[in-house]
Amino acid sequence: MSVVYSLWRTDFLLIKWGDNLDQRGFLDTHYLSGLSAKIPGVGFVKIHATWNVLCREAELMKLKMPTKKVYEVKQSSSVVKKISSLVNKVLEPLHPHVEEHQPKNIKHLSHTFSREKQHLFDLSDKDNFFDSKTRSSIVFEILKRTKCKAKYSMGITSLLGRGVYTAAYPLHDGDINEESAEINDRKLLYEEWANYSVFYKYQPIGLVRKYFGEKIGLYFAWLGLYTQMLIPASLVGVIVFLYGCATVDDNIPSMEICHPKNNITMCPLCDRVCSYWRLSTSCGTARASHLFDNPATVFFSVFMALWAAMFMEHWKRRQMRLNYEWDLTGFEDEEDHPRAEYEFRVLQKSVKKEQTEVHKVEKLTCRDRFPAYMTNIVVMLLMIGVTFAIVFGVILYRISTKAALHMSSSPMTRNHVQLTVKTTAAIINLVVILILDEVYGAVARWLTVLEVPKTDKSFEERLIFKTFILKFVNAFTPIIYIAFFRGRLVGRPGRYLYVFESYRMEECAHGGCLMELCIQLSITMLGKQLIQNNLFEIGIPKLKKLIRYIRSEHGTFQEEERQKRFQRYETDHFLEPFAGLTPEYMEMIIQFGFVTLFVASFPLAPLFALLNNIIEIRLDAKKFVTELRRPVAARAKDIGIWYNILRGVAKVAVIINAFVISFTSDFIPRMVYQYMYSPDGSMHGFVNHTLSYFNVSHFEDGKGTMDPLHLGYAVEVCRYKDYREPPWSATPYEISKEFWAVLAVRLAFVIVFQNVVMLMNDIVDWLIPDIPKDISMQIHKEKILLVDLFMKEEQGKINLMEKSSEFSAVSENSSSHNSTRTVANLRPKQKANSIKTC
């Protein structure tokens, strides 16, 4: 069976007739025979709600509808009005060509619908008073609470869960390709929103909300604002990158490394197969590291922290403006109906209790859910452990591959070992992340189903939390390892740390781990955006649509059947079911993490995020308009738990960037050397200052190089990057005082950076009010107008009652006076007649 309910203007209902649905007079249903002929095995029933039903449900759902009262939204001053008009003229090409029903400065006064006060509302066009989005949400609300014959079951969700019906959804308004004089909302959205040729235009958010509902409208409004805010972040990031390119030739440390006369001999990077090498061979890495590790990156980290705070504050103001424009002020989320799975579990528990003659069960307790909670904890920890194990496996791959490439007979291969290992390891990490993302999404849903949440809202929030934790750990664990752990658990020559007693722990290149962090971050971010967010979103819905079409014909559909023109309800049957906004939000939240968490190592991240989102908006729009069944419109005043996750990511970003600048980059060691140890206050001698000495005769047996004459001369002392005492000191190879000085400054920088940026964020939060001033004034004005409207109505009633009472009093007096005259006039005649009679 397939259930499709729709609210066309013809008021026909299209749903395959099932059983166990007690209509109770709520809806008018008509079974249309013969509609299922083109799709064997699938039938449809159409549901239509009458005007009286719509009015009653609108009152119960407390929907705000426009009244007859219209008022003008005035600008605060003539100067602001002129500036606004000038800006609108300049930005006119960026606005979509969507007709407004009324001017922007004219607004209908809205009020909660009431059947007793219908005369106050604008009912000049009853057919369009409740639009298709509102009608579909009203019908779905009725279907959800209409009881089935099964005990403890409620509505269409139970029927869907038990397979009585296979689907229930509103139909799209029309075809995007139909040629008609009247352009429907769906076709208008396709032309002005879901088209790549209008990528530079603003989104028609009002039309999106009108067609899909407030919840989806808020998502696209948030995505649009996030994309707009990425523009200044991208510009600053490009400037920081260009600054690094412009100053790379003036960077003294990289100049010292690249100097041809530099003859510093470095210790082997691995045991036995690796040889001694000259520091000048890492010239390219040192120059490339300066592009991302320069003083401008510190400024950019502070800027992005403030940018995140500005974005959150801007969104709160935008959200309040949309709430006002969409008549959601004062709207509160009502308690949702219990989910079908929850009712079924309660029913099972009640049956068991009845057998033991215990009182009726009404809900599930924590004791009932305890096994599910324990399963959640164990499986979540297991999945996180799997992520750590895979990261550890990639580490072993890098160590073994590096040793194998060093043994190669090809000089080109040996010269590009670092680049080859870094790039291939990053690609392997990307593939693993893409696979585990799908696995973790399924695991999170399974764990949430085990908990049996009572309502859909609770189910969604629990699912979001689990999915975010797993996918966040999956995406950022390799990056966190490179940023904070690689190169810090190495040991020193002669006493290295080993894994499984044979694999020496990795160490960073001389330019630091920041370059490798940049490579890992860029490949992961760009790969996820290109493969997962774009190719998967385009290909998978089309593939599922094709499979559904083939299955509907049992795999033997003929050419004449395919050539038949399907009706609207048949065409929508082949579309992909709407699975919620969680995947859409999740990919953007992970991207927000890439943009903010490690932005100190990759200033171009906002630029790539901006380019991706420009495509993402149109891609999602096209998917919603052409690839998905029309979702049931849902009211919402905010983006829910996603806002709290965004705030948490923004707070963590400040701390992580502080540690990246302090511990991953060489910013702090350079500053310490310049102001504490440099003889002339410059960076000359910095490279030599950061290198320690090691006597090659102190290598452990079997750990030294097999080719001691690789450089053409015998090496007695090699250098390695660390702050340790030389072998000829009283305490050879012990940590030097320079190490403790640098560590103290690093910790101090983290504390100062974190507190200063947090303070600046709080100042931004305090300076920018959550509610725009003009919106608060308009809300206050509407309250006054509503009071005035109802006072006039009450006064009108009082005047009408007084007039009616006066009219009745006058009528009584006139009637009594007329009756007296009649009696007085009739008495003489009666006397005369009586005389004549006698």
Topology:
Blueprint (H helix, E strand, L loop, with lengths): L27 E2 L17 E2 L2 H10 L3 E9 L5 H13 L15 E7 L13 H4 L2 H14 L9 H7 L23 H8 L12 H8 L1 H34 L4 H7 L6 E2 L10 E2 L4 H10 L2 H31 L14 H16 L10 H41 L4 H5 L1 H35 L4 H29 L6 E2 L2 E2 L1 E2 L3 E2 L9 H39 L6 H5 L4 H6 L8 H15 L8 H23 L13 H24 L2 H11 L8 H4 L1 E5 L21 E5 L15 H31 L5 H65 L1
Helix pairs in contact: 4-5, 7-8, 8-11, 8-21, 9-10, 11-22, 11-25, 13-15, 13-16, 15-16, 15-17, 16-17, 16-22, 17-21, 20-21, 20-22, 22-25
Notable characteristics:
two-stranded antiparallel sheet; 838 residues; mainly alpha; disordered C terminus
Report the C-alpha radius of gyration, rounded: 37 Å
Helix content: 55-70%
Contiguous runs where pLDDT drops below 50 for at least 5 residues: 1-37, 554-563, 816-838
Q: If you average the pLDDT, what whole number results?
A: 78
Tell me the total number of β-strands: 12
The coarse overall form would be elongated
The first-to-last residue Cα distance is 94 Å
Q: Based on helices, strands and strand pairing, what is the structural class?
A: mainly alpha
Query: How many domains, as an integer?
Result: 3
Fraction in beta strands? 5-15%
Number of helices: 26
Q: Spatial order of the strands in the main sheet?
A: 1-2
Largest sheet geometry = 2 strands, antiparallel
Family: Belongs to the anoctamin family.
Protein name: Anoctamin
Keywords: Cell membrane, Glycoprotein, Membrane, Transmembrane, Transmembrane helix
Pfam families: Anoct_dimer, Anoctamin
